[in-house]
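Work Package 4 report. The design task specified in the project plan requires that, given a folded chain encoded as structure tokens, an amino acid be chosen for each position. We show below one input record used in the internal validation round.
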């Protein structure tokens, strides 16, 4: 990790996000949907600190999610770590300060996370309770949109808080 955010701060951010995900966010649902703070912060960490930090953040948040949920154990750990890797590999390809690009990246990568999760869980369990089309319409897209909108509001705070603004030499 860069010296601007140490590992302990990253873990504190992830633990706080996890706590909010399983408690407070149930009260601020919009049309029955709540954002995915795990995907949001894994993507944030990967964009600003690179793919290895993205994998680590994805692993940590995914493990917390796996421990807490009744999902297939390990699926959240794997899918969030993969999402962190992809976000970190993509991050040098775009201007990190562009809020529109940040929002788009969060939307696309949250969709990616849900697709990977769906396909891995379908392959492992051979039981699907909902069709892919229904899952896309009722879960993938609403959660991804909500998460992306939240990124639009939250990313600037964390960029400013940790002094992560890009300088002209990096453009």
């Amino acid at each position: 990790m860069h010296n601007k955010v140490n590992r302990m701060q990253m873990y504190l951010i992830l633990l706080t996000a996890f706590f909010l995900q399983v408690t407070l966010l149930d009260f601020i649902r919009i049309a029955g949907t709540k954002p995915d703070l795990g995907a949001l912060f894994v993507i944030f960490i990967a964009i600003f600190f690179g793919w290895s930090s993205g994998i680590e953040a994805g692993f940590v948040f995914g493990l917390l999610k796996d421990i807490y949920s009744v999902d297939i154990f390990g699926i959240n750990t794997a899918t969030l770590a993969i999402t962190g890797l992809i976000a970190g590999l993509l991050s040098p390809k775009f201007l990190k300060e562009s809020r529109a690009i940040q929002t788009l990246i969060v939307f696309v990568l949250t969709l990616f996370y849900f697709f990977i999760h769906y396909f891995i869980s379908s392959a492992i369990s051979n039981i699907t309770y909902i069709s892919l089309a229904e899952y896309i319409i009722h879960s993938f897209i609403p959660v991804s949109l909500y998460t992306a909108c939240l990124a639009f509001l939250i990313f600037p705070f964390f960029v400013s808080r940790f002094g992560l603004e890009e300088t002209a030499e990096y453009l």
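Residues 100 and 117 are 26 Å apart (CA to CA). Validation will be extended to a larger panel in the next phase.
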